[in-house]
Predict the 3D structure of the following.
Amino acid sequence: MLKQIVLASGNAGKLREFSQLFNSWDIEVLPQSEFGVTDAEETGLSFIENALIKARHASQVSGLPALADDSGLAVDALGGAPGIYSARYSGDGATDKRNNIKLLEALEGVEEIRRSASFHCALAFVRSFDDPVPLVCNAQWRGRILSEPVGEQGFGYDPLFYVASEGMTSAQLPREVKNRLSHRAQAVAQFEVMWRENMRGIDLAGQ
Ligand SMILES: O=c1nc[nH]c2c1ncn2[C@H]1C[C@H](O)[C@@H](COP(=O)(O)OP(=O)(O)OP(=O)(O)O)O1
Ligand SMILES: [Mg+2]
């Protein structure tokens, strides 16, 4: 029987990537919206704390195991900002576009060699809302922030994130390439190892 887990995210770009990343798994990963789960307040001080908050919230509302992703962009020249505040960087009513504009303003005049940055992704998986032994993983992807957006694919800060090994931004990468290299892809690969070690033979919420 197909096992169901809730994906604790309201971000359409992430949900698209996860549906591809989990494509070959024998579990059904359903977005939190299908269970009426609304956004949790991200009050943590780290990606992993926020991922846990989101996963526990989605599990509590849905009654199912839940997986959450908390991710963001840390720019070295900005002391790691916007970091866990990446989605809220441009304040109330923040959008990807406004966040990108704010980032370009913050980096105005900063020379190319000092524009290094990392995407971070923390994943948290809980079997139930009060799971005392969640599965957690963390990964990062190094790049450099361009001076103007390039590319139409992906979401968030992708048009500004230049990936040297590919010679293009993550918004220009074919999605299967982003889904091989990205912080999220690497975190899911770690998660797959943990899943195999920890979940073998475990009944998911009695399913
Ligand atoms: O691969 C990525 N490519 C580009 N940008 C990215 C990526 N991964 C995270 N990001 C940016 C988007 C957002 O500004 C922040 C995530 O914030 P984060 O709170 O984890 O997600 P969110 O609020 O959009 O949705 P949700 O919390 O429901 O999962 O980092
Ligand atoms: Mg969020």
About this structure: Strands lie at 3-7, 27-31, 66-75, 116-126, 135-145, 161-163, 168-169. Helices lie at 12-21, 47-62, 96-106, 175-181, 183-199. The chain has a mean pLDDT of 95. The radius of gyration is 17 Å.
